[in-house]
Amino acid sequence: MRGIRKFGVFTAAAALTAACTSGGSPGAPTASAAPAAAGIHAIKHVVVIMQENRSFDSYFGTYPGADGIPAGVCVPDPAHGGCVKPFHDSNDRNTGGPHGATNATADVNGGAMSGFVAQAEGGRKGCTDPNNPACSTGTATTDVMGYHDGSDLPNYWAYAKNYVLQDHMFEPNASWSLPAHLFLVSEWSAYCTQHDNPSSCTNALQNPGLPPDFRSGRKKAVQPAGPPIYAWTDLTYLLHKDQVPWGYYVMTGSEPDCEDATALTCSPVRQNAKTPGIWNPLPYFDTVKADHQEGNIQSLDAFYSAARSGTLPAVSWISPAGQVSEHPPGLVSAGQSYTTNLIDTIMKGPDWDSTAIFLTWDDWGGFYDHLTPRSVDANGYGLRVPGLVISPYAKQGYIDHQTLSFDAFDKFIEDDFLHGERLDPATDGRPDPRPDVRENASQLGDLSSDFDFTQKPRAPLLLPVDPRTDLVAPH
């Protein structure tokens, strides 16, 4: 086993997280008495940590007991002939493949799950807009059939062993990052023509209203000159109406993609809590502006402070910066260290005993997954991604086989804090023409089954931010 620091690849992640690790509690809280609150309401704080671009099989395809890579898989390789079998890839830096709606359809290939290599090889080389999911990273070879294991991902696998691993978590949409983040906070991806008029919105999976910096190469939707219009109803509208505090925390740094042709050398696009975009869509929502909730969109430093002081809001969403997002070509090790630091900070804080952490990845990133996506409506589900539940009430070593999607996060939040109220055009006071109420899909499982609320809250599992792994640093 080789330590990451030995190769010097942890420097960037350490620089980004060092400021957040200082001043933490010197010790970990111990298990406490059983909660007075009953059932789901023992959870006072939900934290959704969203990472980038990994399939379930690429991270947990060999995890014992999970619905992982089946024997005999070999995906056609049209460029070289024959086929490519899944292989252990110990490289810290991966490239992945194109991951737009058309790529998702081709990867799935009618349920054969056989298009991954062809799509990666067919990605346009030297693309001028890597944020366009029709593009790949421009490398000569593909690693979409590669997978990591517990020697590469010791902390992620430790969370699975000690808490809950979800092996049927699907991204809510068969498309790329922006729709995934829109579904995360609003259960829909739409294109609107009028502010404050939800009825002006139409279903738009691949091309919702786009931030101005990301319109290059996208010609399927006519975009307005200014910022996009997100007039449909999002979850913060219901939270604000019921006086439920929330926060959306954005890590200062670069966005998970950049605008140069090659991701290794491009000038990054800077982001912070005041820069709306693909990974920070809430500032564009009319509801957020009308309710004067822009101040709830804050820096990641504010989240660390709240976690340490025991002042976490009821609902937190966390968006990473590029270097720690795990979005290719970001390092796997940097992402794992960043998420571990987040989770350790929560565990050391006063709110741990009443918190549920949901960790997932926004889309499959072009990486192989063997499981055919479930169909709930015209928008999805998309391909399978990893999902973890980390909480003092989470079942230990439990593998959740329910069909899940990011819709389940909103369903849990609504059941916990909003008395089961849904983002339903018939009842939420702002009717929009969304195709359905995603939280009520018959296929969707219930995250409350991942918990045992009769147990005393378990003591935290603090892990090293810089674990020893078998990952090989890039040259």
Architecture blueprint of SSEs:
Blueprint: E1 2-3, H1 4-7, H2 11-21, E2 45-51, H3 56-60, E3 75-76, E4 83-84, E5 87-88, H4 101-108, H5 116-122, E6 146-147, H6 154-162, E7 164-166, E8 169-170, H7 177-186, E9 190-192, E10 201-203, H8 235-241, E11 246-250, E12 253-254, E13 270-271, H9 286-290, E14 297-299, H10 300-309, E15 315-319, H11 332-348, E16 355-361, E17 387-390, E18 398-400, E19 404-405, H12 407-417, E20 468-469
Parallel strand pairs: 2-15, 2-16, 5-6, 7-18, 8-19, 11-14, 11-15
Antiparallel strand pairs: 1-20, 3-4, 7-17, 9-10, 12-13, 16-17
Helix pairs in contact: 2-11, 4-5
Quick structural summary:
By secondary structure, the chain is α/β, with parallel strands linked by helices.
Annotation keywords:
475 residues, alpha/beta, Alkaline Phosphatase, subunit A, two-stranded antiparallel sheet, 22% helix, globular
